[in-house]
Design a protein that fits this description.
It is a single chain. The chain has a three-stranded mixed β-sheet, with helices on both faces. The protein contains 23 helices and three strands. The protein is mainly α. Strand 2 and strand 3 form a beta hairpin. The chain is elongated, with a radius of gyration of 25 Å. The longest helix is centred in the last third of the chain and has 24 residues. Helices cover 66% and strands 3% of the residues.
Amino acid sequence: MKNRRLAWGVAGCVLALAAVPVQRVCQAQEESREATAFQFTDIDKQVLDEAKTMDEVFQHKGLVMHDADLQAYLDMVGRRVLGSRAAPENVSFQFRVLRDPMVQAFALPNGTVYVTIGLLSLLQNEAQLAGVLAHETSHVYERHGYLENRSVRKKMLTINILQIAASAVPIGPNVGTVVSAFGLALQLGSMASSVALVASVFGYSREMEHEADSDGLIAMTAAHYSPAELAKGFGLLKDDSHLEFEPFTTFYRDHPKLEERQTFAAGYAANHAAEKLDSGDEKGYLAKVAPAICAEIESDLRSRRARTAVARATRLNGIFPENLRYRTLLADAYRALGPKTPLPTDAEKTDHGQSEHRKEYFKMTEQEEAARLLKTPEGQAALKESQDKAEGLYKNVLSDDANFSAALRGLGFLYEDEGRYEEAATEYKTYLSVEAGTSMDHMRMERRLAAVQKLADAAASTGPAKN
């Protein structure tokens, strides 16, 4: 504990050391670590093996996103944050993107740093991403996973968190996949004694998290990234957390911690305001992480997260208005939004409103929730507005490219939802002529066309309604 207090004392004095060149502070930290070398025990080696197992689980379950350009970008930012610092013993730093729309990042004790598509979609620039990676790699350098495990493993108080999360919480098929993977591994008995990996997702002690923020600010500044952007990133996290209900409160969604971290980062940044540091432009950043954002939007559309889908797609379209895929995704998002408003009302943002949202999430299906909203004038108006926006966007895409298949398909879905069956059949036919083939989707659309055509024929046979 004496050595840990010494390390905390160094990190906690970051603001006081602001006048000292950042490179010298990093060097001092390295010397401090060498003087208090971490000694591996059998328990620590078990944690290391478990971290490697989790890497394998994420890969096996298809949670790791494999996009060559995105991976190269993440590696570049990660290497820049690491700089010339040597990796600790038994650490091989790797940076990976996880297909989970939850806003989250974490580092396993073996040096694998994971960032979710949800977090990549929310951040605004490269400097904010660098701040996240600097924070997470600091946990690895400080051996927080091992120290946390040593501290609490005998109490056995947190070991069942993920087991309960995986088995008792009815989350959607795409939300919380990371937590579900941890829970599955625990239930299978492959991690029966470690709490280190639990802490990596839900957050470490206040002292350790503050230490990682301190070290992270130093590391990102040494890499010539503006620490002011990290403070802005905390603000983004806080504001975005009201959009949807998420089944787990992770470290990146904890409001009190976010406010403390934002204040701390802003204070540190103020002492480095005169330095020429990179922030990175939003357009350049979005161009690099667009595959992750598109993946998140598609996941949101399958997971009752239409508001988030609208927000992410709106942002992409604002920067890249010429991109037909992004425009179609925005149309899909408005179609999925239905009778909900794009942004939560003030009442929904309150603690009571969040509680009611949570109840609806667990007690109602998406269709039941929509039916309840449509009983109100506000819900009916919201549905009409969403459908009009979706139709306008689909038609706008097709005016640029009449054979853009995703827009044809989406417009057909919209018309079918609205009971405009003849128009839906027309769009489906055009889609099938463009996407000729024998794929499963092609066969599903053929069946859908047949069903819609029957409804259209039935409507035509009855004729117009008489007054």
